[in-house]
């Protein structure tokens, strides 16, 4: 177990530092630190999402028996991804910190920051990103132990499907980068917003009815009978995982309506949601 976690602890922060330093030091780029940090954090999130989705696809398509079949990637990638969620909490804080400084709330340029300003930024970060931080904490403190210990090698198919929920993340990250460079009105932003909406709906919202349907087909049960046939704590866990997805999907839909509604003034982006 230790080897994949150590590898994840090296790969994700290492990729972030490599990307940030490259964007800052390449003569053709010479980006400011704030821009380099924010784009690098989005890049790492996208890379992790592609890796997770690929691993999930391999696992889910390899498990013909949805309960008993196993694939080594299910446990290996779960362990590998744990450091990512810890790293990403810090990376999101760095992004928030730099946005705070750019907006002029970090004290005079070149001067010492006001006492307690770091704590003020940290409080603002936790207030703004509370749901995302909570999501990451739950993934590490609850979902990881459950997937490694409680499952006892059962249900790799379901874990693979859950990993594929990350399909929408690269579209979210690209949307935020386009916003950062004020490209909200471009065709790329609109196409990306549509792809994000579709991928989020299919891979994060409709995923849960699909998992219930897959179990029902395996057990010979109609879809509506599945919740009554499985343990209550499984239904509770699914509901807790689905709830933030529904909230984020609502935000995406609200933003999409504003983006595609003809207006004279620049519309807000549909991408101001999860990392």
Automatic annotation (TrEMBL):
Membrane disposition: Multi-pass membrane protein
Any GO MF annotation of the entry: sphingosine N-acyltransferase activity
Entry coiled-coil feature ranges: none
UniProt keyword annotations, A-Z: Membrane, Transmembrane, Transmembrane helix
PANTHER family listed in its UniProt record: CERAMIDE SYNTHASE, CT120 PROTEIN
Major localisation: membrane
Key word Kinase present: no
Name of the gene encoding the protein in the UniProt record: TLCD3B
A Pfam family this chain is assigned to: TRAM_LAG1_CLN8
Transmembrane intervals: 130-151, 157-179, 191-212, 232-253
Record-level GO BP terms: ceramide biosynthetic process; lipid homeostasis; negative regulation of fat cell differentiation
Stated name of the protein: TLC domain containing 3B
């Amino acid at each position: 177990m230790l080897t994949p976690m150590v590898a994840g602890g090296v790969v994700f922060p290492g990729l972030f530092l490599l990307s940030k330093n490259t964007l800052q030091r390449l003569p053709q780029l010479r980006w400011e630190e704030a821009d380099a940090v924010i784009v690098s954090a989005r890049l790492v999130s996208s890379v992790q999402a592609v890796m997770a989705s690929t691993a999930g696809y391999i696992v889910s398509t390899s498990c013909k028996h949805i309960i008993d079949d196993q694939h080594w990637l299910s446990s290996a990638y779960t362990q590998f991804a744990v450091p990512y969620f810890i790293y990403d909490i810090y990376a999101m804080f760095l992004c928030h910190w730099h946005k705070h400084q750019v907006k002029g709330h970090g004290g005079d340029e070149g001067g010492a920051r006001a006492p307690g300003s770091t704590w003020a930024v940290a409080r603002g970060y936790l207030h703004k990103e509370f749901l995302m931080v909570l999501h990451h904490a739950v993934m590490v403190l609850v979902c990881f132990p459950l997937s490694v210990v409680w499952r006892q090698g059962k249900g790799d198919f379901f874990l693979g499907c859950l990993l594929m929920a990350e399909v929408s993340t690269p579209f979210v990250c690209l949307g935020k980068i386009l916003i950062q460079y004020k490209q909200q009105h471009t065709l790329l932003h609109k196409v990306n917003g549509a792809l994000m909406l579709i991928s989020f709906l299919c891979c994060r919202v409709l995923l849960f009815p699909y998992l219930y349907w897959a179990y029902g087909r395996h057990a010979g049960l109609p879809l509506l009978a599945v919740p009554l046939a499985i343990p209550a704590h499984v239904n509770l866990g699914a509901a807790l995982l689905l709830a933030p997805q529904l909230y984020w999907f609502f935000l995406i839909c609200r933003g999409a309506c504003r983006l595609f509604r003809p207006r004279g003034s620049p519309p807000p982006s549909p991408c101001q949601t999860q990392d």
